[in-house]
Amino acid sequence: MTGLWVAGVALLVVVTFVVWRTRPRSAGRLRELRAAVDALAAGRLDTRIPIEAHDEAAALGRSLNEFATAVKGRLTEAGAERAIRDAVLESLPQGIALLSPDLTIRHANRTFWTLVGTEPAAGARPNLAITRQPALEEIASEAIRRGQPLVREASLYLRERSDVEVAVAPVREGAVEAWLLTIASLSPEREMATLRREFVANASHELKTPLTSIRGYAETLLSGGLEDREHRGRFVETIRDQAVRLEALVEDLLELADLERPDAELDLKDWDIAAIVREMAPPYEEMARRRGLALEIEARTGSHARCDRKRIEVALGNLLDNAIKYTDSGRVKVRVEPGDRGPRVSVADTGPGIPAEHLPRVFERFYRVERGRSRALGGTGLGLAIVKHAIQLHGGRVGAESRPGEGSRFWFEIPAGGPPPAVS
Question: Which domains does the chain have, with CATH numbers?
Answer without folding.
Answer: 2-88 (no CATH), 93-185 (3.30.450.20), 187-262 (1.10.287.130), 265-424 (3.30.565.10)
